[in-house]
Amino acid sequence: MNFGGISALDNVSFEVLPAQVFGLLGPNGAGKTTLFNVIAGAIVPNAGRTLLNGEDVTAWSPNRLCRAGIARTFQITQPFQALTVEENVMVPLCGKGFSLSQMRAQVGEYIEGVGLGHKRFALASELSTGQRKRLELARALATRPKVVLLDEVTGGVDMASIGGLLDLVEKLPGMGVAVVIVEHNMSVIRRLADSLLFLNRGKVLARGKPDEVLGHKDVVELYLGAANA
Ligand SMILES: Nc1ncnc2c1ncn2[C@@H]1O[C@H](COP(=O)(O)OP(=O)(O)OP(=O)(O)O)[C@@H](O)[C@H]1O
Ligand SMILES: [Mg+2]
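^ thats the input. predicted complex w/ adenosine-5'-triphosphate below
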């Protein structure tokens, strides 16, 4: 994927299995969000392919990809500000033949699951950054995805709420949802991910099990070295 002269993604490939939590790491500007944008259809790559259960879905529209089972959360949240939490989570269910009460019943478990039960009837514009992140997750899950792409979903979430959020993410593989998670918090990555890809400047620097990748010489030098210093 090129932006002008910048090669934002170069020869990056990975496979996520059903019921897997796959971690995507790398410093700022590594290409993590760009990769999500390509997979979710927000930008069309000038090379490369996305396969979903073997089917080539490259350059499908975001709506079509969502219907096919690819959901995402945004690093910078984009809720419908004038709608309530409940209405925001109901949006993906509209037009699918459900009655209002059926939609309400369906979204309840996701709203509770992300710990926003007490904010169900609050406007999205009244939420804190962390609450908006949790709303993003509930909205993505309400589409009943096969794969969910989580872009720094714990960013800005208060410590008291992070535990519940991670419990929910941890349950997703058991519900048949594959998770790709971009996350800067290494303890979160170690707890959740079973396989990692580490990007730097659009290229793969390391891949493998968390211990292998987080112990990789170049990764330690580039990423953890600064944090550990
Ligand atoms: N729409 C765009 N137009 C031009 N350049 C872009 C665009 N989107 C991203 N880039 C560039 O592509 C590179 C990768 O950016 P990206 O946002 O994917 O990084 P990231 O790994 O998600 O970083 P962060 O950890 O800061 O979120 C950066 O050099 C960025 O400036
Ligand atoms: Mg990003």
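Residues 9 and 196 are 17 Å apart (CA to CA).
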